[in-house]
Design brief:
The protein is mainly α. It has 11 helices and 2 strands, in the order αααααααααααββ. A two-stranded antiparallel sheet has the order 1-2. The longest helix is centred in the first third of the chain and has 29 residues. 35% of the residues are buried.
Length: 341
């Protein structure tokens, strides 16, 4: 009995000791930059896609409860909420095409590219699963058959499909143009040297931009503009019962993946060449600076003040009694970080 009591006490004490250790390790992991950016992209994409796909479900299933304007508002303000959630952590890309463009133009390190893409894809996939569970009436609406095309098709709730009035390559050019307009305007909204959105209003302005693109250019292809918005939900429908037809329907599946990458890159190049290169940039003069990682520039401050200026006619005593005491100032260990704009 005594030995069993001792074992129980030792087990309890070890659990009490291990739990703070585990919490400390978890906090250390969560504070890593890559982890924080992954979680930010995951959560912001999830929020955007839940609002966006939910609005599409209303239009397809709800009749008078949904409309194409409602879809535009759902995705637009879903983007706004996503920017509020992750804008100061990862930049709230929520879009693989935007992440690709930032890496290709040297605004972000390529080593972060898979981290951002993984977070976006997982968030989008989970959002599709959430909408499927919330709107389980999809099964009843289609009479128990999950179809991709036809009058009772429901796969379009989750991904975009080429309409009958358009051709494959016309749809490809449409996605290139629409995504290029998105990236072009995003650079203008966030360029502090031009005429950016007011501080604190960027999220709202970006959401309005998505709404405007939808109501003006969204009819032809559904304005996917985003591989992270289209591919993960399409894969969800494949494993949820819609089958391989989600990838075979008019061979469209690859267009919302490839065309936005090309369009976003072209839009960024056009802005930098025609607008960004014509703006007079204020140079930064930094002493003893050393550039590192993406955006930050550490500057080591001077630790000793300049000696006071004395007149050549002023007598200066150098006797030990009058000699001022000299105190050594320890160097600063932490650099001061300046964000590059």
């Amino acid at each position: 009995m005594v030995q069993s009591d001792k074992k129980r006490r030792s087990t309890r004490s070890s659990k009490m000791v291990s739990s703070p250790v585990v919490m400390t390790r978890m906090q250390a992991i969560m504070q890593k930059e890559m982890v924080r950016e992954f979680l930010a992209e995951f959560m912001s994409t999830y929020v955007m896609m839940v609002f966006g796909l939910g609005s599409v479900a209303h239009m397809v299933l709800g009749g008078k409860f949904g409309s194409f304007l409602g879809v535009n508002l759902g995705f637009g303000f879903g983007v706004t909420m996503g920017v509020h959630m992750a804008g100061n952590i990862s930049g709230a890309h929520m879009n693989a095409a935007l992440t690709f463009t930032n890496c290709a133009l040297g605004r972000m390190s390529w080593k972060k590219f898979p981290v951002y893409i993984l977070g976006q894809f997982l968030g989008s996939f989970l959002a599709a699963a959430t909408i499927y569970c919330l709107f389980y009436s999809i099964i009843e609406f289609s009479g128990g058959r999950l179809t991709v095309t036809g009058p009772i098709a429901t796969a379009s709730i989750f991904a975009t499909y080429l309409p009958d009035h358009s051709t494959l390559w016309r749809g490809f050019l449409d996605e290139v143009l629409v995504t290029g307009m998105l990236q072009l305007c995003l650079f203008a909204i966030t360029d502090k040297e031009n005429n950016p959105a007011l501080q604190g209003t960027q999220a709202l302005v970006i959401g309005i931009l998505v709404v405007v693109i939808g109501v003006s250019l969204g009819m032809n292809t559904g304005y996917a503009m985003n591989p992270s918005r289209d591919l993960p939900p399409r894969f969800f429908t494949y494993i949820a019962g819609w089958g391989i037809q989600v990838f075979r329907a008019r061979d469209w599946w690859w267009v919302p993946v490839v065309a936005p990458l090309l369009g976003a890159y072209l839009g960024g190049i056009i802005y930098l060449v025609f607008i960004g290169s014509t703006i007079a940039r204020r140079p930064q003069i930094l002493e003893d600076s050393m550039v590192y990682e993406d955006r930050r520039i550490p500057v080591l401050p001077k630790t000793m003040p300049n000696p006071p200026m004395t007149s050549p006619l002023t007598p200066v005593s150098v006797s030990p009694i009058n000699r001022p005491s000299v105190r050594t100032v320890p160097p600063l260990s932490d650099p001061i970080h300046l964000e590059r704009f």
